[in-house]
Amino acid sequence: MALAQCSFFSDVLGLSCSMNVIIPQQTRRQIGMEGKASTGKFPVLYLLHGLSDDHSIWLRRTSIERYAADYGIAVVMPTVHRGFYTDMKVGGKYWTFISEELPYIASSLFPLSEQREQTFAAGLSMGGYGAFKLGLRKPDCFAAVASLSGALDIGSIYERQDIMQPWEIESIFGKREEAAGGLDDLFHLAEQVALLPPKDQPLFFQSCGTEDFLYPDNLAFHTHAVKLGLSLHVEYGPGDHNWSYWDEQIKRVLDWLPLNGR
């Protein structure tokens, strides 16, 4: 695998941004790891960070580069600060950035596939919210999305002042009554996607540790998605809101992704 550490300018955000990009590389003499074929454009996984992290965290806390080598998939890891992958009420347009500008820039700089069936998203905590949001609002662009310990119920965020202060939450989503039932509410978005033909709906992977403080929110979304008939693969088990859990689960996600028609 090749690793590119990239700085670029975002017209949407009006500032310089960073992303790390893992690109498949065919190798024969690398000790301890083999690379997949490196011809053509690669399937791509947009891998999103959590509230307190940045573009570097997946490389620092997991073996994502080594795991991805077995699948011949590129991995794009951007920084989105604390913007919750949302066009903030007061602040940056992080939804427009992650859903439109970033894929355009990344595919212009690297040989990434722009085909829906080869485009995926995953993330942890805030990034799990972002990944599901990409699948639910852009089902024509993403074939499969995965949430690890996702902050899937934005309503509950307003109740947890130990994570974010009310002023910060409202700067992102507005007042709680504004957010409910809108384009940032995953429960509402799931209802809209459920109206699409099954072939036009993305696949969903959801996992959360049973000791995680976000476990109740994940159970609530799971129940909602099942009632709607969405294609949701769920994995629960022992685990907390930490990197030992996410390192294990991102391997599960890569194995689950519908790569090469499987």
UniProtKB/TrEMBL annotation:
Record-linked InterPro entries: AB_hydrolase_fold, Esterase-like, Mycobacterial_A85_antigen
Gene3D superfamilies noted in UniProt: alpha/beta hydrolase
Gene Ontology molecular function terms on file: acyltransferase activity, transferring groups other than amino-acyl groups
Span of the signal peptide: none
Protein name (record): Esterase
Organism per entry: Paenibacillus herberti
